[in-house]
Amino acid sequence: MPRWVDLHLHSTCSDGRFPPAEVIRQAAVAGLSAVALTDHDNVDGIDQALAAGAVLGVEVLPAVELSVQWETWEDIHILGYGIDHHQPALTAALAEFRAFRGGRNERIVANINARLQEEGRAPIDFAEVRARAAGTPGRPHIAQVLMERGYVAGQEQAFHQYLIPCNEPKRFFPLQDAIDLLHGAGGVAVLAHPSYISDQRAELLQLFDAFAVLGLDGIEAYNNRATNDDIDWLISQARRRRLIVTGGSDYHGIPGTEIVIGGGRGNLRIPYSCVEEIRSALKQGCRPN
Description:
By secondary structure, this protein is of the alpha/beta class. It has a domain at 4-93 and 187-283: Metal-dependent hydrolases (TIM Barrel), CATH 3.20.20. It contains eleven helices and nine strands. It has helices spanning 20-29, 46-56, 88-118, 126-130, 139-148, 155-163, 175-184, 194-197, 201-213, 228-240, 273-283; strands spanning 4-9, 34-37, 59-70, 73-81, 173-174, 188-191, 218-222, 244-247, 270-271. Strands 1, 2, 3, 4, 5, 6, 7, 8 and 9 form a nine-stranded mixed β-sheet that branches. Helix 1 packs parallel to helix 2 (46-56) and helix 5 crosses helix 6 (155-163). The chain starts with a strand and ends in a 6-residue tail after the last helix.
């Protein structure tokens, strides 16, 4: 009987809607054999996820998602699997990164309040935003406050009307630093949802080649934007470069979105072989033979 997994899930420790234990409970209800909690720049929920997985019979891989830049490319995401999430160098780097992001979000709220004042609306308090996050507050948490105040009808409107116009510059890990950080914590580095980076395959081929030289270990071929043809193509590109293949829904649990845990947009099925590839790469020192 086939076993299915979802190796790209978010909780309230970054920008997801549900606490780590609830995410794992939902994975169990969905019949998943294994999952990975991949919160943005945050590993605080992993112990809770591991504990829930032990009770519910769901295998949980320690993981994280880093935002990186390479040359002129920004906000590329790298997933780290099999990390020692208590490793001091990793936790220190993530704490410093989140501290910067926290200040950025406060500045975004200040910009939004200036706009709300122009509109004759009461400002929002950053404490309201912080209360909705188990970890570092993010822009989705700001959107939640705007929605609860009745200023917008949904998250898409919140971003279009306030968050994008009132944005502040984001910070990224240099790609090489991110890969080295994940390898130093004993993990493997996987390029997340390449279908979101570019829809031009020629561009993706250049990125795959360059990133493999820098130490990339895998490609998230199964992702919520990829068609079946895209998935087959991504798997073939990973094989040609001796990279592992992984997959995940990028589930956040946000109301009104069509992404479902373990299913992406409803038709994504990720085989357990992705977990086996990760474990094999970890045993072999981060690179498959």
